[in-house]
Amino acid sequence: MRMMLRAVLLMGALVGTGAVSMEAAQAAEKAKSKTQATSKEKASSTARTSSAKGAAQTSKAKPKSSASGSTRVAKASKTASPAKARRDTADSRKSASRVLPSDVDLWQESGHLAVRSGSALVISQDGGETLYEKNARVVVPIASITKVMTAMVVLDSMPNLQESITITDDDVDYLKGSRSRLRVGAVLTREMALLLALMSSENRAANALARHYPGGLPAFVAAMNRKATSLGMARTHFEDPTGLTSHNVSTAHDLARMVAAAYHYPLIREFSTTSGVTAEVKGRELEYRNTNQLVKSPTWEIGLSKTGYIQEAGKCLVMQARVADRPVVIVLLDSDGKQTRIGDANRIRRWMESVASSGKQPTPA
Question: CA distances (Å), 115 to each of 108, 126, 297, 304, 334, in order?
Answer without folding.
Answer: 13, 23, 20, 21, 12
